[in-house]
Amino acid sequence: MQKNSKRNSNSGVSDIELNSVDADKEKKESQNNFVELLPPEVTFKIFSQLDIRSLCRASVACRSWNYAIRNSDSLWKPHCLTVRAVCQREIDDDQKRGYSWRVILLRNYQKSKVKHEWLSGRYSNICSPVSLPEKIMYPMDADTWGEILEAELER
């Protein structure tokens, strides 16, 4: 019995020490996390200076950054409007369906890159499907392929 009570009292001290170490660690992480320290307007201003790739990378840095970036739909709008230059119909349709700017960007970003490559004539002189890089292919709807075909016929 005495051995058990002695072990329990020692483990109680260890638990207290571990809890204080965890609390110190959380306090230090919180002090280093500007998202939790700065007003939301300032945090938004900082994140709004990032390009798409940097914004996505920042969103996986930690939970609070992810939450701030993911839940700030207006951070994604300027990037969507850039993509809209190539995918106007797709962006407008998604907007009418009520998707958030972040979701619209997720749905159309890769498509816009592929569509831009096709419309700019990068693949105009392809002799066979084998000549197309596999990673550039992206599923697109019939209307998008129609736009690409029209551009090719005009060339």
UniProtKB/TrEMBL annotation:
Superkingdom, natural source: Eukaryota
InterPro entries: F-box-like_dom_sf, F-box_dom
Compartments it resides in: Cytoplasm
BP terms from Gene Ontology: protein ubiquitination; SCF-dependent proteasomal ubiquitin-dependent protein catabolic process
Ranges of residues in domain F-box: 32-79
CDD domains listed in its UniProt record: F-box_FBXO48
GO cellular component: cytoplasm; SCF ubiquitin ligase complex
PROSITE patterns: FBOX (PS50181)
SUPFAM superfamilies recorded: F-box domain
SMART domains assigned: FBOX
Pathway: Protein modification; protein ubiquitination
Keywords: Cytoplasm, Ubl conjugation pathway
Sequence segments annotated as region (Disordered): 1-22
Protein purpose: Substrate recognition component of a SCF (SKP1-CUL1-F-box protein) E3 ubiquitin-protein ligase complex which mediates the ubiquitination and subsequent proteasomal degradation of target proteins and plays a role in several biological processes such as cell cycle, cell proliferation, or maintenance of chromosome stability. Ubiquitinates mTORC1-bound TTI1 and TELO2 when they are phosphorylated by CK2 following growth factor deprivation, leading to their degradation. In contrast, does not mediate ubiquitination of TTI1 and TELO2 when they are part of the mTORC2 complex.
Subunit structure: Part of the SCF (SKP1-CUL1-F-box) E3 ubiquitin-protein ligase complex SCF(FBXO9) composed of CUL1, SKP1, RBX1 and FBXO9. Interacts with TTI1 and TELO2; when TTI1 and TELO2 are phosphorylated by CK2.
Protein name in UniProt: F-box only protein
Native source species: Equus asinus
